[in-house]
Task: structure prediction
Amino acid sequence: MKNITRFGVLFLFLLISMFYTDKSIDILKNSDPIMKQIKNTKEKYNISPIDAVIRGDEIISGNYGKEIDYDSSYNKMKRYGKYNEALTVLKETKPDTSIDNNYDKYLVKGNSNKRNVALLFKLGNIENIDELVFLLEEKNIQSTFFIDGKLLEKELTSIKKLSNHEIEILSYDNSYDSTLMKTSISYLEAITNRVCNYCYTENSNDKLLKQCAKLRLHTIKPTIVVKEDIYLTVKKKIESGIVISIDDYEIGDLSYAIDYIKSKGYNLVTVADLFNEK
Result:
């Protein structure tokens, strides 16, 4: 019993010693001129995160912030031997409200602070696919394609032409049956060697939303759904963060629309890039 008591006292003493040693090191570090100079640049480098905005059953993505990693910056500069601003290390800061884990909300828009716009194509057939791929490559942009699972099975060779773009599952033979959707998603993931992240709907669909949430997939409800006259539609409604869903198009009109979007200073990105909060 005495040995146990002695061991306990010794262990407690070690813990207290370690605590005060760490405190002493922190005091010395914070009083070091290098650390003081690092902290003086806080306002220059720190960017506050932006919370995602939730409005009922819809969500607009937020944005990670940045701040100085004091310990990493200090350690690098200490090895260098003096303060050097070029060795400043930054770390990301997550917003309090993020799209992460908010799968029960419709993703309707990306953060408007980034001048990004996503083109999304619903692919129910492979007509004009060669022309479309050529146009996108010519314009040097990547897009997102939502493909019916049955079409994927039947036209795999043609679908592989989209390998430079983002591909997600739209439905299976126009059905949102849970088992068929899971099977199509697994098949697509095996083909593309990447994880699927999204579902798609143009109108509120609580059943689909819940089904996709269980699969940890975000459900996109696009800002603009283009049925015809893509150029005029885009010209009237273009703004940062929107998803433009294209159901039908003429290659010439699509080309003009893309040029117009770029001329206004917007970046054409995939859905994943649009909703990336980092």
User: Anything to note?
Assistant: The radius of gyration is 26 Å. The chain has twelve helices and 13 strands.
